[in-house]
Amino acid sequence: MELWYTENQNNHLRLSCKVNETLHVEKTPFQHLAVLDAPGFGRILVLDGIVQTTVWDEYMYHEMIVHIPLNTHPNPKKVLIIGGGDGGTAREVVRHPRVESVVMVEIDERVVAAARRYLPELSCEFDNPKLDLRFTDGIKHVGESADEYDVIIIDSTDPVGPAVGLFSKEFYQTVFKALKKDGLFVAQTESPLFNRDLIARIYGDIRSVFPVVRPYLTCVPSYPGGMWSFMMGSKRYDPISVEPDGVPPLGYRYYNAEIHRAAFALPQFLRESIGQV
Amino acid sequence: MELWYTENQNNHLRLSCKVNETLHVEKTPFQHLAVLDAPGFGRILVLDGIVQTTVWDEYMYHEMIVHIPLNTHPNPKKVLIIGGGDGGTAREVVRHPRVESVVMVEIDERVVAAARRYLPELSCEFDNPKLDLRFTDGIKHVGESADEYDVIIIDSTDPVGPAVGLFSKEFYQTVFKALKKDGLFVAQTESPLFNRDLIARIYGDIRSVFPVVRPYLTCVPSYPGGMWSFMMGSKRYDPISVEPDGVPPLGYRYYNAEIHRAAFALPQFLRESIGQV
């Protein structure tokens, strides 16, 4: 018998991968959660029927959502992670030498429990003494913080269900207040191929709140189209001004000093989407 | 009734897209040829069961295989295209202002005939007076040329079937001879995610023949994993030395001066594959 997992990436595109077995299926208070084991991708975390991360390609996402902001800020001592329940973002944050403390706010404790059990490659730093892991609403936590964080990383699901509020202008305003006077934040902002209007809207919203706004790109083969976007809003530091010697050697698998700079080069169609012609 | 086209990208990964209709199916002397019409991708050219190009994302491939080499060479007067039967590469080459003549050598006349009929967005320059279109073996043509071309573009299918000889060290040596004394060439060199060993071998082979060798990347959502590689071998000019004012404004959709430079930034795993640590 062959078992295949198929994801409808949109109305007309499906990605399917062969599956060895379904390791876990659960309805949490927030979403449907599954962990699959696949010969190509290794273990796969699926939330509400959408691939969140696979052991095979997770580093292309996690290194880029973490080391771009941490190497842009000259002294990222205190970091907040919103979401990121699989643990990959926390794993990358705690190994940065200038990070002293990390608060991670994940709304769904069951995602963390599944990652602890099934995704040790990602969840391996949940017990790191630098990390303060809290199960509550990220929007509420940010709203109660003021002048507190150097860097905030928003590692959310797609803008449907529990994550929808994380993609709003009002939220970016509370993020601004929660950051110190030279703080910056990064959010995952979906596919530039399939979500151009969303990215244009987010770009405009962040630009109305932060003096520096920079979209950047990576490749994530298990996400629709393979190309993925992030957006940085920063009060002072510009990520494209980082010099190669500002990138500490941490044994990256995707990221490096050249990728840091190159990630901000936007294809012409995307420049046009956000009004940079 | 719903019709879906499914491609086995490897043993454990399948990409499927909804299809409105099959416009054309044919067994040519060289390969199986089909043209599909799809709601997401527009028309799709399929050779031997592998997607070659789609109207929706072809520019991400064709602009990158053409404008990187043409803007690296300061005076690309005479250009050779090997393959490229869909016409997208020829379309991009002829609109470059310094190109005076183009020889295009496609082994399979039936691909060109299908492109003329079904893919007008790609085949629109087949009758351009700059273009000399010949139906013969590209390896033979290159072997009969000496000191003739400024730029050679190898727009082949995968290294199976008719294209296998285009991925050999012996072929790169004949390409060297066919180029003028400051000539350069580019070849499509498959997926960096799924063909790392092949890319490492090609890199070594081209490096043993050409003084300058530069791999570079683009995104092609309809190809496996979304990330795609090209390799340039050059006798004199280095593509990473091109200044922004060396990029003429030609109404690109993907490529631009920033992308020209950024495409040569390689993810760490790929640097390691080719021995650039």
The chain pair with the largest interface is:
A-B, 41 and 41 residues
Multimeric state: homodimer
As for the CATH topology of the largest domain in chain A, it is Rossmann fold
**Overall geometry of chain A:** globular
Q: Class of the largest domain in chain A, according to the CATH hierarchy?
A: Alpha Beta
> What is the tally of helical segments of chain A?
9
- Overall mean pLDDT of chain A stands at 96
Secondary structural class of chain A: alpha/beta
Approximately what portion of the residues of chain A adopt beta-strand conformation? 25-35%
Q: How many structural domains in the coordinates of chain A? A: 2
Order of helices and strands of chain A: EEEEEEHEHEHHEHEHEHEEHH
The Cα radius of gyration of chain A reads: 18 Å
Q: Helix share of residues of chain A?
A: 25-40%
Strand order in the sheet with the most strands of chain A: 9-8-7-10-11-13-12
The rounded distance between the terminal residues' Cα atoms of chain A is 52 Å
Mind telling me the CATH superfamily name of the largest domain in chain A?
A: Vaccinia Virus protein VP39
Annotated CATH architecture of the largest domain in chain A? 3-Layer(aba) Sandwich
Low-confidence stretches of chain A: none
Number of DSSP E strands of chain A: 13
